[in-house]
Amino acid sequence: MGLASRHLLGLEGVSAEDLTEILDTSVIFREILERPIKKVPTLRGLTVLNLFYESSTRTRISFELAEKRLSADTINFSASTSSVSEGESLRDTVQNIEAMKIDMVVVRHKSAGTPYFLTQCLNSNIINAGDGAHEHPTQGLLDMFTIRQKYGSLKGLRVLLVGDIKHSRVARSNIWGLKTMGADVAICGPSTLLPYEAERFGVDVYTNLNEALEGVDVVNILRIQLERQQTGMFPSQREYTHLFGLSNERLKRLNKNFTIMHPGPINRGVEITSEIADSNSSVVLEQVTNGQAVRMAVLYLLSGKKSVTEENE
Ligand code: CP
Q1: Which pLDDT score, from 0 to 100, does residue 310 have?
Q2: What is the mean pLDDT of the chain?
Q3: Who wins on pLDDT, 78 or 275?
Q4: Which end of the chain is more exposed for a tag (fewer CB within 10 A), N or C?
């Protein structure tokens, strides 16, 4: 029981044993989400700060609901309505909030390394909810949970990540987690949107989507960050869709019983057609539901509590 670290900063370096512990514990919480009363006393008495310096729909609501379903008290911080807008530093901000007796901090920030920085100036458990282009570990975990739910195991499955890998924290967390669990991982995108360190990941790298899709079980389509178009990373949205958009014709290259994933938010008609996003092969909404169970598991395991269903003082 329990994880090697009291923080979750990323999936790089997390052992297969710890990943399995999180995924197995998530199964218990996923079942709780199907009950008429979706609430357990597990984290009663603990206070969790949701510190979101960047916009979020899924992750912010998912964490808040996960905390509430575990009976924790939750505080939602918004940079725009706080003293940050008057120039208060991140360190001063979080140390002042922690002085009000916070136990855990969930943080999203545009700067990679912010969650690590918080471990250096706070006593709370820190959970990374997305830091720059570094990692988004709970997204990686919920993607792995969703794949395992369908196929039973991650070992030996061919998983392809398509899109803006270079700027994607989701891609990095998926790559580290999936590889540790024995999946066969490949990435595909325009060469301008592939990371310089792609070789370090130990994955197959493609710039041709038709080739990349051959023999794949799971395709995880990443949001194309339209703001990148201004910086010349790809010539036009239409060309991107032509070369890297997922269409019905391209699906024929995949293995039977394939799965389509997307972390959201989706640009419909750009990286994926609406027809595919809403098809029976798509698990986009299941990913969102599973995200809550995975976040409940992470909060529970990091809290040091010893029982899921019974309060442990
Ligand atoms: N998948 C994800 O991180 O979505 P949000 O940006 O809405 O949290």
Answers
A1: 59
A2: 94
A3: 275
A4: C
Report the alpha-carbon distance of residue 28 to residue 86 in Å, rounded: 44
Radius of gyration of the chain (CA): 19
Per-residue pLDDT band at 289 (split at 50, 70, 90): very high
**Per-residue pLDDT for 259 more than 50?**
yes
Atom of ligand 1 nearest to the CA of 60: 8
Q: Would you state the structure tokens that stand for residue 273, as one six-digit string?
A: 């057609």
102 neighbors 73 (Cβ within 8 angstroms) = no
Q: Identify the residue whose C-alpha is closest to ligand 1 atom 4.
A: 58
- Cβ neighbors of 222 (< 8 A, separation 6 or more) are 161, 162, 163, 164, 165, 168, 170, 171, 262, 263, 271
What tokens appear for 180 in the block?
A: 């540790």
> DSSP secondary structure string, 136-153?
-HHHHHHHHHHHHHHHS-
State whether residue 78 is helix, strand or coil: strand
**DSSP state letters, 112-128:** TTHHHHHHHH-SSEEEE
Structure confidence by residue, pLDDT tens digits, 45-67: 999 999 999 989 999 999 999 99
Query: pTM to 2 decimals?
Result: 0.95
Structural domains of the chain in order of their starting residue, each with its CATH number: 16-135+288-303 (3.40.50.1370), 137-283 (3.40.50.1370)
Higher pLDDT, 300 or 233: 300
59 CA → ligand 1 middle, Å: 5
| Ligand 1 pocket list (CB less than 6 A) | 56-59, 130, 136, 139, 263-265
Q: Kindly provide the residue ranges of all beta strands, DSSP E only, lying in the chain, ordered along the sequence.
A: 47-52, 73-78, 104-109, 125-131, 158-162, 184-188, 204-206, 218-221, 259-261
